[in-house]
Specification:
This protein has helices at residues 8-12, 41-51, 105-112, 129-146, 165-172, 198-215, and strands at residues 26-34, 55-56, 61-64, 70-84, 87-97, 117-123, 150-155, 188-189. The protein is of the alpha/beta class and 216 residues long. The protein has one domain (5-215): 3-Layer(aba) Sandwich (Rossmann fold). Strands 1, 2, 3, 4, 5, 6, 7 and 8 form an eight-stranded mixed β-sheet that branches. The longest helix has 18 residues, at 129-146. It is globular and about 50 Å long.
Length: 216
């Protein structure tokens, strides 16, 4: 596995030609967006759907309540090639979001089934701290035993009463330093509605997922 974090966007954010005829080089992954209700999961989903310069195998769909909250999940299939060594692999990725509504806990477990990686979307609103902690504990309970990589994005950094980065990290039990040894962020500070840190979190997770696949 020779792809490095520094080469991530050079090898991915470009116009792609997708060749399904090379079937032995097709790998399929599932990425799940997880977090408390109204933290910005669907906003991340829409930014990816509308702005990723990759092949969209489906147009994507959302199942929402009448007030615009995710009832079941959002889903889209994307495809892009990634060179690894001398081989160009075609990557098919399903991106889905879990509803953050507590009464639909059973659906979240279903959506997470078969996931290869998870993006946790935290809410910067101080009033949502307990919801962040509860949702993150729930996620860790699923991912640790399955060995699923995840990244953490703290959304809504433009809020006037935004929780401090250090306070958020301490409450969720995250490392207090900025970067992991591979260069990826411990915490992606986002304003998802503006697209800030949406792509970065996604591509860094994809790198972890691909590495995990080839090392397993």
């Amino acid at each position: 596995m020779t792809l490095t974090n520094s080469k991530r966007r050079k090898n991915t954010e470009q116009e792609f030609q997708f060749n399904l005829e090379e079937s032995e080089r097709v790998i399929q992954f599932k990425i799940v967006y997880w977090g408390p209700g109204e933290s910005g999961k669907t906003t991340n989903f829409r930014i990816l759907r509308n702005n990723l310069r990759v092949v969209k195998l489906t147009n994507g769909y959302s199942i929402e309540t009448t007030d615009g909250r995710t009832l079941w999940h959002d889903s889209i299939y994307l495809a892009f090639p990634i060179p690894i060594g001398d081989v160009n692999y075609n990557i098919i990725t399903q991106i889905v979001t879990c509803t953050g509504q507590e009464r639909f806990l059973a659906t979240r477990e279903y959506v997470l089934n078969g996931a290869d990686g998870v993006v946790f979307i935290g809410d910067s609103d101080k009033q949502k701290l307990e919801e962040n902690k509860r949702s993150f504990r729930e996620l860790i309970g699923f991912t640790i035993k399955a060995g699923i990589p995840y990244v953490v994005q703290l959304n809504k950094r433009d809020l006037e009463n935004a929780i401090s980065v250090m306070e958020f990290k301490k409450h969720l039990g995250l490392p207090l330093f900025k970067n992991y040894p591979d260069g990826s962020e411990v915490l992606y500070l986002a304003v998802a509605i503006e697209g800030e840190e949406v792509m970065e979190a996604f591509w860094d997770l994809m790198l972890q997922v691909i590495q995990n696949y080839f090392q397993s």
